[in-house]
Amino acid sequence: MSWLYLLIAGLLEIVWAIGLKYTAGFTRLVPSAITLAAMIASVGFLGLALRTIPVGTGYAVWTGIGAVGTAILGIVLLGEPATAARLLCIGVIVAGIVGLKLVS
Q1: Distance (Å, rounded) from C-alpha 58 to C-alpha 5?
Q2: Contact, 42 vs 48, CB < 8 A?
Q3: Cα–Cα–Cα angle for 28, 81, 65, nearest 5°?
Q4: Cα-based torsion angle of the residue sequence 18, 22, 26, 32 in order, rounded to the nearest 10 degrees
Q5: pLDDT confidence of 29, banded at 50, 70, 90?
Q6: CA-to-CA distance for 28 and 5, rounded, in angstroms?
Q7: Of 46, 59, 76, 94, which has the maximum CB count within 10 A?
Q8: What does the buried/exposed string (b/e) look like for 53-69 if buried means 16 or more CB atoms within 10 Å of the residue's CB?
Q9: pLDDT digits 0-9 by tens, 74-99
Q10: Which of 86, 56, 58 shows the shortest CA–CA distance to 70?
């Protein structure tokens, strides 16, 4: 169950990271509220996951999910460049996440 909590926490990190773009510096109410709620929920689920997952592993996987998801959505939603080097780096992060899951 802890790994499911960690996955949810990572997905919520993606929501709030992308949400920051739409808050316009926290001047837009609805995107700001969604972003803040996602932040709180993300950290809450991370806390639940860390009950049994080592903190180093949990934190690294949480930030990795957020980084990969945010980078991919930046490419898809925001028109950020999808260069070979960038995609390779995203792949390396994914490999690290998988590696940490396999050894934990």
Answers
A1: 10
A2: no
A3: 65
A4: -70
A5: very high
A6: 29
A7: 46
A8: beeebbebbbebbbbbb
A9: 999 999 999 999 999 999 999 999 99
A10: 86
Query: Cα–Cα distances in Å, from 73 out to 7, 8, 50, 67?
Result: 17, 17, 26, 10
Query: Which helix (H) or strand (E) is 72 found in, with range?
Result: helix 55-78
Q: Is 45 exposed, middle or buried (0-12, 13-18, 19+ CB in 10 A)?
A: buried
Supply the pTM of this predicted model: 0.89
Residue 46 has a CB neighbour count (10 Å cut-off) of 23
Amino acid at 29: L
Query: Which residue reads 């990190």 in tokens?
Result: 13
